[in-house]
Amino acid sequence: MQKTITFCIVLLSLVHVSGQNLTGKQLLQKSIEYHDPQGKWPTFKGGLHLLETRPDGPDRKTHVHLNNKTAYFELIQHRDENELVHVLENGQCFQLLNKSRNISEEERKQHQLNCDRTYLLRNYYLYLWGLPMKLKDPGTKVHDEVGKTEFQGKQVLSLKVTYDETVGKDTWYFYFNPGNYALTGYRFFHDESQNDGEYITLEGEKTIKGIRFPQTRSWYYNADDKLLGTDSLK
To answer: The whole model's pTM is what?
Structure first.
């Protein structure tokens, strides 16, 4: 009898790990607990130093400085011989070109130094580097069903996410390691029936201020697996 009870406990544990007993929100919470075990993301203050490579262009160094508690965002990029800076601070936005705010209209157009661009970059970097924690933001619809599929040759748990129309129109699928619930990759579609959009693979980890960030993120087209770029955390 004791052996039978022990076997049943082990079997239930395996079923639980496989994701069959998890709702979408429960899976998301477990992944957040893995990546941000101390709940530091809402008040995270620190820097992310990236090397961004693209097949059709030169490598670029990007430095992102965040204070999520005060909504401070600073992005510094080195392109060719120029240093481009975008800042959001106390609800105000400004840009620097080679450490100067004195930027001509021609230079602003050439380097896309404007507030629309600053907000776009803030949203882009906060979303990608804030995953999976950002999936708890308002307007995010985490679907209940947890699937099992293969991603990059590995068996993973999958989670479908859509958004309120005011937030976004793409359909996303996030993939998790069934053992520790680490985020292993994701893909999105503008129109899933057309197999458009992209997928992103994650490799390695780097812990900063208690948060486990992916070390390397690579982007590919869904349609033909063409590499679009790789971002590496240094």
So the answer is: 0.88
